[in-house]
Every structure is written in structure tokens, then in C-alpha cells.
Fold:
Amino acid sequence: MLKKVLILLFGLCLWFIPAPEGIDPQAWHLFAIFITTIFSVVFNAFNILVASIFGLVVSILTGTLEPVEAYSGFSDGIILLIVMAFLIAKAVVKSGLGNRIALMMISRFGHTTLGLGYSLMATDLLIAPAFPSNTARSGLLFPIVFSVSESNDSHPNHPSSKDMGSFLMFVSMFGIGLSSALWLTAMAVNPAGAAIANEFGLNIHFGNWILAAFVPTLVSAIVLPYVVYRIYPPNIKNTPEAPRKAKEHLSEMGSLSRDEWITAVVFSFLVLAWALSDVFSIDKTVVAFLGLGLLVATQVFTMDDIRKEGEALSTMIWFAILYTLSTYLSKLGFMTYVGDMLALQLLGLSWPLAFVILVAVYVLFHYLFVSQTAHLLALFGVFLGAGISAGVPPYLLAFMLLFATNFFSVITPQGSSCNILYISSGYIKPQEVYTYGGLVTLMSFLIYMSIGSAWLMLVFH
Amino acid sequence: MLKKVLILLFGLCLWFIPAPEGIDPQAWHLFAIFITTIFSVVFNAFNILVASIFGLVVSILTGTLEPVEAYSGFSDGIILLIVMAFLIAKAVVKSGLGNRIALMMISRFGHTTLGLGYSLMATDLLIAPAFPSNTARSGLLFPIVFSVSESNDSHPNHPSSKDMGSFLMFVSMFGIGLSSALWLTAMAVNPAGAAIANEFGLNIHFGNWILAAFVPTLVSAIVLPYVVYRIYPPNIKNTPEAPRKAKEHLSEMGSLSRDEWITAVVFSFLVLAWALSDVFSIDKTVVAFLGLGLLVATQVFTMDDIRKEGEALSTMIWFAILYTLSTYLSKLGFMTYVGDMLALQLLGLSWPLAFVILVAVYVLFHYLFVSQTAHLLALFGVFLGAGISAGVPPYLLAFMLLFATNFFSVITPQGSSCNILYISSGYIKPQEVYTYGGLVTLMSFLIYMSIGSAWLMLVFH
Structure:
């Protein structure tokens, strides 16, 4: 109760502080609402659904947002893609196909939980260049992680979730950030960033991106799962018998059932359609709608199954709201204002110091964003420009900010749309992400800024 | 399988028929998609969720609608209001308050199922003038109907649903159409209709509306529950012991629990806020969001409870899609085009014939609409103008069309946003509404056109 009161007082104080010169009062009020909403999750005053709903209510009742603006996130393609991916993932699990793929993975890599974590990450890193939507990729990986956890008797919303599932979910979740940083084509906003960098005379393409990225990203991919293993450990670490048992299970299962066949075909179709969606400019969300429609029409996933998936709705509600609040904060000019202020502060600093401050602030800023795309579009140009004026080597700064746009994805639960499936799985609590995601982001920052910077200086001197 | 193929062939034929002169090809294609979607539900080729998803997918992949247009329904205030009302209703039931109110009703009116149906309808007719949103009203009545059914051991998605729940749900659902027809202020679009009628020189206000409406509406309210009782009968008709048992249960329950108290306060707040929302121009949907937020924050309704409410999501998906398809059909001019064509056909007919044709076509047109508001805004003016030119007495026609805008609400499952809670309850199948809702609409049409017309001719001669 005390926490609730303190958070509300904090919000009220912020609200009544006059907006700093140059910031629209409406933007300031929205900032007060948004940051109070986030803090009430961080400090566990309210759960993320309640906090978001109150954020929405206050933004409408105070007239800060019009109802039609405040509700707009609910029809955003990304939000609907997440909802569809969530339901499709459940169908993949229910059909038995998820279990089969999981058993195949366990039979190869299942001696240790850490080994499973690494194998999940390796899979992601390899398939990533074909998936320009990291959200779609999370829709492919999530059901496999889910099935691996279930096959090891680690169940969601249950004490056994910490046995293995929470760890694997977490590794796969932040792994998507790393795989997105590795390839120009692994994340929708990377090419947009390259285009913005181009306006500053930098030529960033598929080839020099992978050259720049592979050293710090692979180091992170090797180090960070082990870090997570220490700070957010699975209760069950060694499962020497698991591969043999998995093989037995597989031979008991026999050949694919009708439902598995249908799911395999639909799933392969989704993989293909998502991979080719940019070439043929097909909307990614409608592909997901079609996939779900086929799975329900063929009774692989039934109406009774959907009736149990209220979690998808609750996730949709909180994510749509946070997404909208952050979008309007950006639209109202709050983000660029702070970016511009920062650029002024950098005048006269040595470039290495300016570089560190810029990247650190860029990463910290992600607490305010509910979309990597929105973050990059709002701030990447501002920060790149400010850094170049301050004498930071342009390629160094550009690549580092582009990598950061991906590796900071787990700094908050809502930091990336591809976190959402993992968090709504019932294996990871939103509050936990603030702690462990924050730590992992810090570690990524340190690796990229040290090894990554050294490598970039070597290659792009 | 044959049905699926036939429906698809029908849709393809319609698609490739050239658009009639004067209709935009895009509007014609959308019409083909929409009507095929509806038919595949009517003829049970697909369930309403699958049919709607395929409708959405086809409309996007063929380029008939842009993705951003096709998804727009998901952020519509009415859709979100339904989702919130759905969850709040579940909280009212879970808290025990719904059960208490239900037991109070049963202890008074519970000797027969028909008696309960009448008492529900009477409640609605009496509270309606204070509720300009019939959707909000459905959010208040639905949990009570649900609890009455549950208290009589009639459970949703279960054979026992037909014992009592299906009947009561159906009576309450179409009862909202009648209560909305009775009062100018019982439905958001009634005043808009009065304003349009004013452009034709007609003065429609609270007083002459109730004068015009009470005779046919009360006759319908007396006759139609009995009609439903015959065509869609409850398996359990007499429960002579129920009132006594209900009283016993009530005394066993003792005084209100913590959860009941909180729910009662929140529920009363909702009643008040919805009733006053037009006076203070408060968004009705945000009131519902606040109500849910309070119930979750106080743990009356928990995250575990929401996890089970996948039905709300599935309802949201199909209703948002149908709503959007219909909205764009109207936006693309399809509706007014057909209305104009009709007006041409009426030239030279006697006015009574023109009157009957106009009202009948106006009612049948509702198969194409997923919103009473959209229907009235698209067609009321066109039909009123055509009828006045054909010599139909203006007040007679205006009132009859305004009443029809309300009593045709159950002609399809998606015919009114206030049907949605009832249909997603698990007591009524969407397909059943096409049959029984169609019959009840026909009966309403006959009562209003005979008794109602005679009364209107007497009063507004």
C-alpha cells in the first residue's frame, strides 16, 4: 500500500512540475504518466496490466490523449502480429510438433541446461538473416523453447518454471537481440538505420555490417548465456539421462500425426511467407492471421483451446497501451527535445568521452521506448549527428548505436515486441526483466563498447 | 467439405461478376468478401472466428483493403468497450455479487423460467432511459443473466446451457433492442436519427418518442418472450422450489464479502459514470477500462482469472473484423448506392405499399451491417427521403424506421454490439441467432407494422 501511495505521489509531483522550456506541456504530462506507469511496474506497486490500464485511463481522463489516440495501439500490425504468433505457438505445442522438435533438440544438446540454451541461441543466430521481422522470428522460436521446457517437466505459472523454462526463455529472448544485431537483414529497422547513416555520408551494407558485428556479437553470444546461467540460474543444471530418454520418446512417438503434418505445413508456409514478405511486400500480420485461420479451420487448434488463452488478451492490452503511450511521447517531440539538449552538453568534450556518454544515454533512453523502431527513428539521427560534431569517428558511432538498438531489447519487458511472447509465457515475470534484463544489457554494453569498439577501430580506421 | 467448396465457389462467382454500373469495383469486391463471410457462418461452413479471419485475409491479400484499414476495428472504442464489459461481467460473477443479485431475482420471480425472462426484460425497459449506450447496458445486464443461469445449474458450453441459460440470454439480448426502441435516450443513435428527421421538417423529441413507441414496444415485450419460449424453449420450465431455495441460499450467504463490496462499489460507479457520460462527455470505454483496472488492482479479479478468458479475445477478433468490413462497405458507398436504386423503384407505387417495402428492405439491409449506428447513418436519411417523395406519412415512416433500427438488432449475431456479450457467453451459438433472431425480428416487424402503424396513424394524423 505504501508503495502505491509513494508511486502516485511521485507521479503527481512530476505532473505538477512545470514543463521545462521547449517541451510542450502535453508532452510533459504524457511523460509523467508514462514514467509513473513504468515505475509502478519496476517497484512492483501494480502488475503490468493494472499499471498500463491506469496509465491509459489517466491519459484519457486528463485530456492528455484523445480516446481515439489512446486506443490506436490496439489495431497496430505489430500488436496483432504478437497476438497471432502467441496463438500459433500454442497450436504448435498442442499439435505435438513442438514436442517433437524439442525432443530432437534435447537428444542432441540436452545433457545440460546450459547446452540447451546455447543450442537455442545458435539456431537463432543462423536463421536470423532470413527474417527481417524479429517479432516473427520470436513466433518461430518461442514454441520450440516452450516445448523444450515442457518436455523437461518445467511448467509455466508453476514453481517448476524455474527448473529450466525461465532460464531458456530468458536466453532465447535476449538472444533475439543479439541475432538482430548480427545481420543487417535480421531486424526490420536495421536497413532504416543504414539509410539514415547514409544521409551522414556513411555506406553501410550487408557485407560491412556482418564484418563489424560478428566479433562483439559472437563474444556476447558465448559469454552472456553463461552470465544468465549464474545470475538467473535454472534449478536443474545437468540432465545426463535426458538425451537418451528423448530418443526413446521419439521412437515411441512414431511418425507424424495428422495434426503434426498440418502444423508442419502451416508453420513452413509461415517461415517462407515471413522470409519473403519484404520481397513481395506482403503484410507480415496478415500472414499470421492466415496461419491461425488454417490451424483453427482444420481443428488443430479448436475454439475450446482459444477459450483458455486469456493471457494473449491481457498481453495485448498492456503492450498496446505502453506502445501507444511511448509512440505519442515521441510524436509530441519529447524524445528529440532531450536528444537536442544532450547534443548541446557534449560541446567541448573529448570524443571518447562524448562517445561513451552518447551510447550510454542512447541505451538508457530505451526505458522510455516500447519499440526499437520508434527509438531508432526518433533518436538515431540526432545522436549520430551530435557525435559526429563532437569528433567521434562516424562508422564507430553509427555501428555502435545500431548494435545498441538491438542489444538493449531486454532492458525492459516492453523494450522489444519480440520479448512479449516470452514474457507472457508464464515463465518470466515482467519485474524480473527490469533486474536481469538490465544486467544483461549492461554486460552487452560493456562487451560491445570494449571489444566491439576495438574491433571497429581496427576495421574502419 | 462440400459446404466449404460451395461457399468458396459462390464467393468466387460473386467476385468475378462485373460490378453493377455505379458501384466502385472495390466496393463490389468487398461486398463479395463480406457476404461470403456471413454466408459461411449462416450455412455453418466455418465458425464465426475462422470465417472472419479468412474474410480479413482475403480483403488484405487481394488489395481490397489496406492492412491499416482492415485492422482499424481493433482499436475502435465500441470493440474495446465490449472486451472490458466482458471481463468486468466475469468479475461480477466471480466476486459472488452476481450470484447474490441473481438469487434475489429468483426469490421473487423464479417460479418459472418464463417469469424470470419477463423480469429481466422489465428491468431493462425501466433502466434504459438512463443509458444512452445500449452496449454499456448489456454490460450491466449480462452478468445478472449469467448468474441467474448459473444459479439454476445451467452452465455455458455444456448441455445444461439449454436448461435455462440459452433462453434467458436470448430474451435479454433481444430485449435490449426493445428497450432501445422505447426511449429516445436508450440508444446512442436515436438522437442522431431524430436530428436527421429534423432535416425533413419533423420534430421528434423525448415526449413524442415515448408516446409513439410505448404501444408497439410493450406489446412486443409481452408477446415476444413467449414466442421465444415456444421456438427456443428452455428445457426446465417450472422451478416451483427455486424461490424458497434461493431465499435459503441468501440467508446462508450472510452479509456482503470484501470482494462483493468492492465489486458493488465499482459496479455502481460504472452505472453512474455510464449514465452521466453524455452529460460530462466522458468516453464510455475509458470508464470500463477504469472499472476493470480497479477490480484487478484490488485482486477481485486476478491475473489467473484473466488467463482463462480467451473467449473475450476470440470475440474481439471476429467482431472487430466484421465491424471493419461492414464499415468500409458503407464508406465505399455500397449502402447508399443500393438505397438510391431502391428509391427509383418506388416511383408510382401507392404509399402503403411503398411504406411496407421501405421498412422491410431497411430491416433486411441489416444483414450487411455490423453496427446499428452505421446502418442508421448510411440509410435512414435515404429511406426517409424516398418514402416522403412516395407519399408515405412522414412521422409514420420516420418512427417506424427508428424503431426498426433497434428491433432488428438480433437479425444476425453481429447485428448489434450489445449482442456480443450474450453470444460469447457460451449459451447461444452464432448460427442460432440467424434462425431464432431472424424469426423474432420478423415477429417484431409484424407487430410494429400492424399495431404500431395503427397507433402512429391515430396519434400523428
Remarks:
- Residues 430-459 of chain A form the longest helix (30 residues).
- Chain A has a mean pLDDT of 91.
- Chain A is about 75% helix and 0% strand.
